[in-house]
Amino acid sequence: MAGRELVFAPLGGIGEIGMNLSIYGFGDGARRQWLIVDCGVSFASEEHLPGIDLILPDIRYLVEERRNILGLVLTHGHEDHMGALIDLWPRLNVPLFATPFTAALFEARRLSESGAPEIPVKVVPLGGRLTLGPFDVELINVAHSIPESNALAIRTPAGVVLHTGDWKIDPTPLIGAPTDQAKLAALGDEGVLALIGDSTNAVRDGRSPSESDVARTLAELIRTAPARVAVTTFASHVGRLRAVADAARAAGREVVVVGRAMERVVQVARETGYLDGVQDFRGVETYGYLPPDKVVALCTGSQGEPRAALARIAEDEHPEITLAKGDRVIFSSRTIPGNEKAVAGVINGLVAQGVEVVTDRDHLVHVTGHPRRAELLDMIGWVRPKILIPAHGEALHLAEHAKLARQAGVPHVLLCRNGDLVRITPEGAAIIDEVPSGRLYKDGALLVDAESRTVAARRRLSFAGMVSVALALSEKGALVADPEIELIGIPETDAAGRLMADIARDAVEETFETLPKPRRSDPDSVAEAVRRAVRSAIAERWNKKPICHVHVLVV
Ligand SMILES: [Zn+2]
Ligand SMILES: [Zn+2]
Q1: What is the reported pLDDT for 135?
Q2: Residue 3 has what pLDDT?
Q3: Distance between CA 149 and CA 123 in Å, rounded?
Q4: pLDDT tens for residues 36-76?
Q5: Is residue 20 predicted with pLDDT exceeding 60?
Q6: Can you tell me whether residue 246 is helix, strand or coil?
């Protein structure tokens, strides 16, 4: 049996929403061959990780196993599924597969980054099938919030696994075909060993509404708008862009696209046919010349991103786009947890300008791209897996998905964590080992290990500042000059009005004088004593302990 073992390991995406990367292995322990599914990023929040934009999965295990990797298949083009490739693919250099839209979007993203390496993508047709060693991978169309989302039916000599990717059921999506129920049910008839599935909306009852419902609301809101309309949504949501364009045309309005990421997606969608029949959009420079009731601005920035179009419009700082009292802004989006403050800031900026703001709190202007509970049950009913492993979700989502699957009669349900190596057999699934996993931070142009002290030090600095002390000692241990002291990010005076710099200076001098003679000539000993004294002298007045660096120079 050992030679025919099928294993699964998530290296990201479990216990979090983002950073999706799963691997499937086949063969005996020492000589497994691997299939990688997706390679995504997470977005960092400024408060927790100052200076860090992106979080990437740590792929050192895959780098080690590089020679045994047969390929990497992308389920779809969202950043949480392909956003880490530009940085990580060069470390692997393995064949990369994607459907036409995903491949084109990836290429456009790559070209937008200066100095990005060449990354060849092999294009797989929709519904296509590819053989990679023992893995026979079939793409099954699923509805989602970007064109060409695919579930993967992975057939191996040890059984079939369905990796759902991101999906929902939408009988009337605006672009692309609905979720391929027939193919999924046929796969169920064939027999599915394990389902590894999207858990994002497992806490939400019922079914998600259709994109067509949103299109109707948008058409009504655009038709009845008294003046200018701006709509913001996720840049890659081509179906939504199409809904806005159709609504604009019906209302006799031109569409102006504002924001680099959205321009890029529009171009890719035109090239791949997803905007066929949609009128040409106008350049942003025409906005100012169009009458207010003849224009719709499609903007980036639905998450309150400070550099995106909408935030700049809300601050009245956009070079081309202005809004005024009586104009209407529609957030055709959901605020991703963590972005609430930024989004509220943008909304407040708009409201202060007299702009009317419409969100999904008051109108059906957005629907999710992930399955709610009734949809999850449909999938289980079609596929009838022996094993279900919840993926793509935080702990609560995974637990709810697991509970639902048990209630639906799935014989084996397994909750696992990033780095768990899971053996999948007809008897069930079990965690048999752990593989190295973790996180990397994109810090400017560099990738740093999340375990390294860089970001923790930066967080401490941002919280309590730093004192730098320089001492010049003779070889015998006498101070040969006044200590140099510099305070960064520390209040200038204490509550009594004494200069913090003087407090630090006194602490240095006092420590030095009370230090036993033999220790004065030991630079390390001096540095440590001074460091402690300065920190506690400042903490006494401030109630916060800064970082303190002491440099001792023996002259
Ligand atoms: Zn997605
Ligand atoms: Zn996703």
Answers
A1: 98
A2: 64
A3: 14
A4: 999 999 987 767 888 898 999 999 999 999 999 999 999 99
A5: yes
A6: helix
Residue 500, C-beta contacts closer than 8 angstroms, at least 6 positions apart: 487, 490, 491, 492, 493, 494, 538, 541, 542
> How far is the centre of ligand 2, averaged over its atoms, from the C-alpha of 20 (Å)?
7
Q: Can you read off the two tokens belonging to residue 252?
A: 């006799």
Question: Closest ligand to 16 CA?
Answer: 2
Cα 57 to Cα 9, 18, 88: the distances in Å are 13, 10, 9
140-149, 409-418, 439-448: least confidently modelled range = 439-448
User: Over 174-207, what HEC string results?
Assistant: CCCCCCCHHHHHHHHHHCCCEEEEECCCCCCCCC
Q: Which ligand has its closest atom nearest to the C-alpha of 168?
A: 1
Strand residues in 157-310 grouped as ranges (E): 159-163, 194-198, 229-232, 254-258, 295-299
Q: Residue 104 contacts by C-beta under 8 Å, 6 or more apart in sequence?
A: 268, 271, 272
Give me ligand 1 centre to Cα 533, in Å.
53
Q: For tokens 């809004």, name the residue.
A: 323
Helix residue ranges per DSSP H, 373-435: 373-383, 395-407
Element (H, E) at 420: strand 420-425
* DSSP assigned state of 283: P
**Encoded tokens for 430:** 């079990």
CA of 202 to the centre of ligand 2 (A): 14
User: Which tokens sit at 36?
Assistant: 């990688």
Q: Which secondary structure element, helix H or strand E, spans residue 82, and what is its range? A: helix 79-82
Whether 366 contacts 332, CB under 8 Å: yes
pLDDT for position 133: 97
C-alpha of residue 81 to centroid of ligand 1, in Å: 7
Band of residue 212 on the pLDDT scale cut at 50, 70, 90: very high
506: CA distance to ligand 1 center in Å? 59
Q: How many A from CA of 249 to the centre of ligand 2?
A: 31
- Is 401:393 a contact under the CB 8 Å cutoff? yes
- Which residues, 6+ apart, have CB-to-CB distance to 159 below 8 Å? 6, 191, 192, 193, 194, 424, 426
- 41 CA → ligand 1 middle, Å: 12
> If 0-12 CB within 10 Å is exposed, 13-18 middle and 19+ buried, where does residue 196 land?
buried
Taking the model in full, what pTM does it have? 0.92
Distances, alpha carbon 413 to alpha carbons 222, 406, 429, 538, in Å: 46, 7, 8, 55
304 alpha carbon, distance to own chain's centre: 15
- CA 487 / ligand 2 centre spacing (Å): 45
Bridge pairing between strands 6-12 and 420-425: antiparallel
393 alpha carbon, closest ligand: 2
Helix (H) or strand (E) holding 55: strand 54-57
Backbone angles phi, psi at 231, to 5 degrees: -120, 130
> Residues in the chain, how many?
555
| CB crowding 364-400: b at 16 or more within 10 Å, else e | ebbbbbbbbbebbbbbbebbbbbbbbbbbbeeebbbb
Mean pLDDT for 399-406 is 98
Distance 57 CA to ligand 2 centre (A): 14
